[in-house]
Amino acid sequence: MKEFFAFVRKEFLHIFRDRRTLLVLIGLPTALIVLFGFAISTEIRNVDVGLFTVEDHIAITRLMDRIDRSEYFTYIGAYRSEAALDEAMRRGEIDAALVFGKDFAGSLYKPGGACVSIEVDATNPNNASMEVMYLSRIISDYFREDMEAMMLPGTQPASGSLVPELRMLYNPQLKSSYNFVPGIMGLILMLICALMTSVSIVREKETGSMEVLLVSPVRPVNIVVAKMIPYFVISCVVLINILLLTIFVLKVPVAGSFFWMILVSMIYIILSLGIGMLVSSLVKTQIIATLICGMIFIVPVMMFSGMLYPIESMPVPLQWLAQLIPAKWFIEAVRKIMIEGVPVRYVTKEILIITGMAVAFFSAAVIKFKDRLD
Amino acid sequence: MDNCVIEVEHLTKRFGDFTAVDDITFSVRKGEIFGFLGANGAGKTTAMRMLTGLSFPTSGRGQVAGFDIRTQSEMIKKHIGYMSQKFALYGDLTVKDNMELFAGIYGVSRREAGKRIGELLERLSLAGERNTMVRELPQGWKQKLAFSVSIIHRPGIVFLDEPTGGVDPAARRQFWELIYEAVDEGITAFVTTHYMDEAEYCNRISMMVDGRIEALDSPSALKKEYGVSSVAEIFDILARGAKRTE
User: Fold this and answer.
1) Out of B53, B56, B105, closest to residue A218 by CB
2) ipTM, 2 decimals?
């Protein structure tokens, strides 16, 4: 046991002496969280809205005022013709526009209702659909309140019009950080555990120190386990760091069980360590270890885990591929626990899959790990 | 044969069709410096790996420090020291860290390790450098340090794989003085080298050509047998028949 602790101490020394790498390990998650949380955002903001109307009406003015007051839109002004509106959109002056037809005010209080069209620049389809959604929500909110205010108490609305009420569940403010936080956790933990462990084991092979260690009485399995302990500790620190940033800086609350959240993350950390160990037993150089971890495990985390692109909208073969990505299940589980806050029995499937994968990777790594050099 | 610390009979190692070590038989006596010579690719490293438990022999048998190389490699590992040319010590750890690490790995008690480290630093006149990162030391010092660390647990045998590679002649002489000091304390040294002048420092030498041991005796006896004045000339005569290069 003493031999083992001498070895664990050495691994900690390696990491703490390498200040730069340590700084990257701790700093990178912080930077990513802040970047994704504030700068890189799929939320729409600062959308410039134009207006074309045949006749002015107080309701239109008040509506535009309300749109301008929302945090997503800025009202630029009214244009004299639809052609001018079109021109402004081409110039990039406005991103969206509302067009009110003839006799808007007149038909407003008639059965059948009035008509307004929303025009958006759909060069970026994601943004366009969000803009339409936000705008229509503001418009319908405004007119519903307006109508209710106009009506005498006790009377029914004049028309039996159906007003859709949009509710954004679990993420009412449509913050993109709700989506990114689980993704970043999946990415960072994989990076630290798989990449760093495998590189550090392979480095010993490359410099020849592995040979010296294998001649010593340290059991090979202990060499590997000793390597994992510091990265496990760092991962836990990073995990806590991410959670603190998420809760206090991004203001994304952990809706579900904190205990299960941590436990699932631990299983995922162990899974990633297993991947790192397997990679290190298969390759001989640090560069190849980095490439394999990067290309096979980290890039897919970005592409196929549902972090950036929804898996449901991928072609079917890619959807199958996504099922094989460990991070996909972890991110799913974290989303359920952290954002949706569902009881843990709804996450059983994800937890079982992650645990299964962890066991599989570890068994494969132990089988591949060689006691002797040839 | 009680005074033999290494005994090997008909040891063979094949990789597929290639016979790296071909039926070698020899023994090393307690307290001697045994030079294990051969050109690159002659099979020295493979033979040494079998003796240190890193590689499993295809056939033949052998004992190191009284333990069987096939079945008791874990016991062998506790009783030998090992130093390779390729890797000396961890460059990103200090002199003291490295010493403590290897003392710990070999199960030297903390108090005993502290004492030995102090002695070693004193003897190598490195006491002032105890907190220096090893990568900042000159190559010659690194090698001396690596050797001292490899015998920090006082093993019966120390295996030195090309220990003086890339070191200037003055540093090499100093290094051999360290080996002699260790041997005086009762440690047996098993040294591979391709510097023929170093072979003269050994009590006995063996010469490997194409996986076989072609000559084995003391340097002076071998010189007499071949009628030449230096070990290098013997090596030239033997190596002429070699088929393998690199």
Assistant:
1) B105
2) 0.85
Contact B87 A217 (CB under 8 A): no
Q: How far apart are CA A19 and CA A321, in angstroms?
A: 37
List the Cα angle B203/A216/B153 in 5-degree steps: 65
Q: Which residue has the tokens 């406005």?
A: A94
The highest-confidence range among A70-79, A218-227, B100-109, by mean pLDDT, is: B100-109
B84, B90, B132, B145: best mutation site toward chain A, by most A Cβ within 10 Å? Answer: B90
Put simply, the answer to whether A215 touches B77 (Cβ < 8 Å) is: yes
Q: How confident is the model at residue A374 (pLDDT cuts 50, 70, 90)?
A: very low
Could you tell me the end-to-end alpha-carbon distance of chain A, in angstroms, rounded to an integer? 27
Residues from chain A contacting residue B104 (CB–CB below 8 Å): 2-3, 5-7, 9
Angstrom distance (rounded) from CA A343 to CA A259: 12
CA A222-A227-A231 angle, to 5 degrees, is: 140
> Mean pLDDT, to the nearest integer, of A269-285?
89
Q: Tell me, yes or no, whether B244 lies in a domain.
A: no
Answer yes or no: do A144 and A245 share one domain. Answer: no
Same-domain status, A59 and A118: yes
Q: Could you identify the residue written with the tokens 């937890």? A: A351
In angstroms, the CA A8 to CA A352 distance is: 30
- Considering the domain architecture, whether residues A115 and A191 belong to the same structural domain is answered as no
Q: Are B205 and B1 in contact (CB under 8 A)?
A: no
CB-based contact B87 A209, cutoff 8 Å: yes
| Interchain proximity A10–B80, CB inside 8 Å | no
**The pLDDT of residue B1 is above 70:** no
Q: What is the residue range of A207's domain?
A: 176-368
- A281 and A335 assigned to the same domain: yes
Same domain, A193 and A291: yes
CB pairs under 8 A between A and B: 79
Per-position b or e across A165-202, b if 16+ CB within 10 A of its CB: eeeeeeeeeebbbbbbbbbbbbbbbbbbbbbbbbbbbb
The predicted-structure confidence for B153-199, as pLDDT tens digits, reads as follows 999 999 998 888 778 888 888 899 999 999 999 999 999 988 888 88
Q: Give the CATH number, domain containing residue A91.
A: 3.40.1710.10
Looking at chain B, which residue has its C-alpha nearest residue A373?
Answer: B54
Averaged pLDDT of chain B: 89
Could you tell me if residue A98 is inside a domain?
Answer: yes
Which CATH number fits the domain that encloses residue B105? 3.40.50.300
CB contact under 8 A, A6 and B101: yes
> Domain range for residue B34?
4-239
The answer to whether residue A20 neighbours chain B at the CB level (below 8 Å) is no
B110-141 per-position pLDDT tens digit: 899 999 999 989 988 888 888 999 999 888 88
Q: Does residue A56 surpass a pLDDT of 50?
A: yes
Cβ atoms A85, A77 nearer than 8 A = no
Interface probe with A: pick from B87, B149, B152, B190, most Cβ of A within 10 Å: B87
pTM over 0.95: no
Task: Examine residue B91 and state whether it is found in any structural domain, yes or no.
Answer: yes
Distance between A46 CA and the closest CA of chain B, angstroms: 51
Domains identified in chain A, total number: 2
Domain membership flag for residue B245: no
